[in-house]
Amino acid sequence: QVQLVESGGGLAQPGGSLRLSCTASGRIVSFNAMGWYRQAPGKQRELVALITSAGRTNYADSVKGRFTISRDNAIHTVHLQMNTLKPEDTAVYYCNAGPSPLVTGPYWGQGTQVTVSS
After folding, report:
1. Which one of 27, 34, 35, 88 is separated from 19 by 20 to 30 angstroms, measured CA to CA?
2. Mind listing the pLDDT tens digit for each residue in 51-78?
3. What local confidence, expressed as pLDDT, does residue 28 receive?
4. Can you say how many angstroms the Cα of residue 44 is from the centroid of all Cα atoms in its chain?
5. Is residue 114 a contact partner of residue 90, using CB atoms and an 8 Å limit?
6. CA 25 to CA 53: how far, in whole Å?
7. 8 A C-beta contact, residue 116 and residue 87
């Protein structure tokens, strides 16, 4: 069984920064795609950023230029550096992993709250 454990998140002021991390454990497989989704109250879960094992990235238009995704394949960890945060970034952020960047992976983290407010 695979587990994705997230850390980071919390409260930040507009314009501030936060860093999320997610580490896979258990029956580790080589996830080609690891990424972050988010879900705000009353809204659907949406892709924030995705990175393949080769380092190819994909970002939602709303976070381009502000968020950076990175991964360390050796320790099965993916990070999301979030800069210039906006109130509309407030959401629960979920780590996701799977075999293909073309579809949402089957493995999810438990979610971590990010709140951007003054």
Report:
1. 27
2. 999 999 999 999 999 999 999 988 999 9
3. 65
4. 15
5. yes
6. 16
7. yes
**Longest Cα pair distance anywhere in the chain, in angstroms?**
41
Report which DSSP code applies to 104.
Answer: -
| Three-class DSSP category at 88 | helix
For residue 4, the model assigns a pLDDT of 95
Q: Which residues make beta-bridge pairs with 76? A: none
90: CB partners within 8 A, 6+ apart: 40, 114, 115, 116, 117
Please identify every stretch of the chain with a pLDDT value under 70, giving residue numbers as ranges: 28-30
CA separation for the pair 95, 7 (Å, rounded): 10
Q: What is the CA radius of gyration of the chain?
A: 13
State the first-to-last Cα distance of the chain, in angstroms, to the nearest integer.
Answer: 40
- Residue at 99: amino acid letter: P
Q: Quick one: which of 107, 109, 111 has its CA closest to 91?
A: 111
Amino acid at 46: E
pLDDT at 29: 66
